[in-house]
Design brief:
7-stranded antiparallel β-sheet; 2 domains; 27% helix; 7 helices; 3-stranded antiparallel β-sheet; Muramoyl-pentapeptide Carboxypeptidase, domain 1; 351 residues; alpha+beta; globular; Glucose Permease (Domain IIA)
Amino acid sequence: MAARKWFAGVLAALCLLAFGAGTPSAAHARSSNANTAALQTALRALRHYTGGVDGITGRRTRRAIRRFQRAHHLHADGVAGPRTRRALGRRGHPLLGRRLIRRGNHGWDVAALQFMLRRRGFDPGGVDGGFGRGTQSAVKRLQAARGLHVDGRVGRQTLRALRRSHITRGTTGGGGGSPTGPVRFLRPVRGPIGDGFGFVSGRNHTGLDFPEPLGTPIGAAGRGVVTFAGWNSGGYGNLMVIRHRLGYETWYAHQSRFAVGVGAQVAGGVRIGYVGSTGRSTGPHLHFEVRHNGAPINPVPYLLSGTSLKLFVPKAKPAGLECSTSPEIRGPQSRPEDPRRAVLEPCGGDD
């Protein structure tokens, strides 16, 4: 009997040790999400993954890992271990915290940093693994908000402040502070931002994507006049353009239908249309652009955190919805300011 009790005690101790060794700490859990996002970013750039960068190792991500592993003659187990990361080349290293990150850097750590910034409300304008102007601006906003020296570089102190920051819920891309610029815009829908502005998955993305269910109401981002509401042959589908003051325009693409027409004077939050999937799109979402004197600019610094529209209960939130399996409309824009013929930049990484 004594021997049996002794054996049961040893077995229980071994189980506890095994559970403790296999359970990551809270800090590791937080970084593992960022590492998954960095992996998704690398796989998207290499055209093995077309989903959203959400930091979740789901079925779609594991399938992309196995596809990449088979292409590089690795054991296709769906786990991104050291050999898989080495095969990713410069996109697979260095890990976050291994170096001082500054503008011009590229790699795994930059993508992880961008994902963490976005989750904490300091949206860098996209998660692409490249430390550009948008990421530097987000870092500076973080540093200013936490009372750190504002230099736009990420060392141990800035990274520690970022990890201790509260993860925002419900929306991403609020900016982490007051918007900048001569004008302010409301968010056209309540949902989070999917793909951001800039270089995303091998293409130049000229706006923000808001993944929303079909039929979600879209609100005007600010006071202005509707100058275009019709079909765009360059990939935007049903497109509406609103002219604001000081040479600013807002574009609302892929709509299922319009609620107002050309010439309508609208105020911020007035319903102008409904989310759809027209044009170059593989699922319902709103492609939203801000243009100044005809040129697309990053909307994030101009966005307020709110919208005056009533909450629309979502059923699903897909991401990466502008990756067409067979984009046919390519080539330069002869008249970028013409909404009828403006071309939505095609994806560079389709399965």
